[in-house]
Amino acid sequence: MIKDLPLPLLLAVFALAGAAVVFSSIRATRLADIIADRTRMGEAMVGGIILGGATSLAGVVVSVNAALSGDASFAFSNAVGGIAAQTLFLAIADLIYRRANLEHAAAEPANLIQAVMLMILLSLPLCAIAGPEIAYLGVHPVSVVLFLAYLYGVRLSARVSEQPMWRPVMTSDTRTDEPEDSEEANRSARGPALRFAALVAVMGLGGWVISQVGGTFIERFGLRSSLVGSLITAVVTSLPEFVTTLVAVRRGALQLAVGGIIGGNTFDTLFLVASDLSFRDGSLYHAMGTSDLYWLGTGLLMTGILLAGLIARQRRGPARIGFESVAMLGVYLVAVIIEVMG
Prior knowledge:
Membrane topology: Multi-pass membrane protein
CATH topology: A middle domain of Talin 1
CATH architecture: Up-down Bundle
Pfam families: Na_Ca_ex
Number of domains: 1
Order of helices and strands: HHHHHHHHHHHHH
Organism: Limimaricola pyoseonensis
Distance between the termini: 32 Å
Subcellular location: Membrane
Number of helices: 13
Radius of gyration: 19 Å
Oligomer: single chain
Shape: globular
Largest sheet: none
Structural class: mainly alpha
Number of strands: 0
InterPro entries: NaCa_Exmemb (IPR004837), NCX_ion-bd_dom_sf (IPR044880)
């Protein structure tokens, strides 16, 4: 049993599980770029739906396991803490991409609509928390609404990607979504898709191990569930998004990088749906703590700042990063300080 391991072995298992998730995600990013070209779905859509969902799998396993064990705070903070951490990764990627502001270069209508949908999806749990404590068969009605809204958002994003009603102003720093190989679109996507599915299975298994270790940290060392969920398991299970973002930026697939983060965050809202279904002591939204609510607000605020950056498209700010990156770094740092001091 993982929970019975001595601390050195426990940390080693945690590190190995995290490494397996990260290395699988690196390969998955390359395959996602190939799948985007061969299926002609586009980098923003593949990044937002397929890659975003795959790299989020480890996180959803953590939240579901926490909810099944009755720890609502762990489940909730892991979900919303991951959204905040992944949004921060775009600010770090902006620091690394030296040619121009990343949000300027990766102009894509599908990313804008996904950011809007993410803000809507994050607002729904907030309404549930502020509303009456109700649950039917142990599930809050907002979880059903959130799931249906997510499906509608995916459909709307696909429509915007295929038939955009407006296009961004093209500049010398704007990168377009074009296949790297002109022959790529004529090849079959079956092989890359099967390898991609195998990597997803590895990420899911890694997520289960991380959830077991995280629960052990809470029980053995008396750590707060919100602290472990938002700053330990959420960050570790979000590392695939960080790696895939850096790999995508390095490959010049900027729409894939931005779309992967926003789409992954959108998918992460479904952690709350899965956790509410798994939590058997009533509504998940009324069983979590104040610090968990703070991380929900942090994720919502950072998404709003990111959306403003995607719309404003500041070309070059201080050190060639946009105002949104500076603001997101500041917001996340304040949230971490408050969590640690709390």
